[in-house]
């Protein structure tokens, strides 16, 4: 056994299949998308080389710029609402002694539900005539309180953000809760003996010690919100009036509905670069942070 482990081919036998899949399903599509981005092509006729025209067109495309800012709404909502809510719920569950496993399972249930199901479920809840939300609003107030949640350009994005948060927040709660419960009990007990309040315990002990997990949550939020697609596609298809259009839905429409595969590929490359730059900046920031030692 030891002789086999000292053989480099043993490690290669385990690494190469995974590496091959990574190249096939990640590296190759990126290279092909970059290649097609330099062409005007409808997927049927011959490709026409146009250089950087597709990429310069992005900078002038008002719909793409609007879709980029809509993605940023997802990111800001995640940072301002989702992550603080995750921290609050995780800390509350960590304080519970009885039925903790039940609460962890309960918050994780939406994660295992398919996005299509979540989108349809919230579409029913947001329905103007029969939706539960409007029914409750009509019961406690005048008819004017009922809203066209997915047809109103001012409310559609917020409605999708809430649905998306409901589905994904459970994963971050479980991740954050695991980090909190992994904090050595001796540190918490010493703080309690010194008379630390719950707020001081959270601010001076819990948050610094789970900082690595917070950065992981931040990275996942950036990558997830920049490539969000299915929930928007099903709930509003980018409408009304492109108020919920995101880069992924716009790329889909351009590439496969308008049959501009070259321009659609350029949008995909732009998304890749945006995500790469944002996650790279976060990685640099995290490396400069002093590691917390127990």
UniProtKB/TrEMBL annotation:
- UniProtKB keywords: Cell membrane, Membrane, Transmembrane, Transmembrane helix, Transport
Q: Does the keyword Zinc-finger apply?
A: no
Q: How does the protein associate with the membrane?
A: Multi-pass membrane protein
State where the protein is found. Answer: Cell membrane
Q: Domain (ABC transmembrane type-1): give its ranges.
A: 68-282
The record's Pfam families line, in alphabetical order, gives: BPD_transp_1
One GO term describing the cellular component: plasma membrane
Q: Which InterPro entries match?
A: ABC_transporter_permease (IPR051393), MetI-like (IPR000515), MetI-like_sf (IPR035906)
- What domain of life? Bacteria
UniProt keyword annotation of Nucleus present: no
> Transmembrane ranges?
12-38, 72-93, 105-128, 155-183, 204-222, 261-285
A biological process from GO: transmembrane transport
Please report which protein family the annotation says this sequence is part of. Belongs to the binding-protein-dependent transport system permease family.
Name of this protein: Binding-protein-dependent transport systems inner membrane component
Q: Which organism is it from?
A: Paenibacillus curdlanolyticus YK9
Q: Highest lineage ranks of the organism?
A: Bacteria, Bacillati, Bacillota, Bacilli, Bacillales
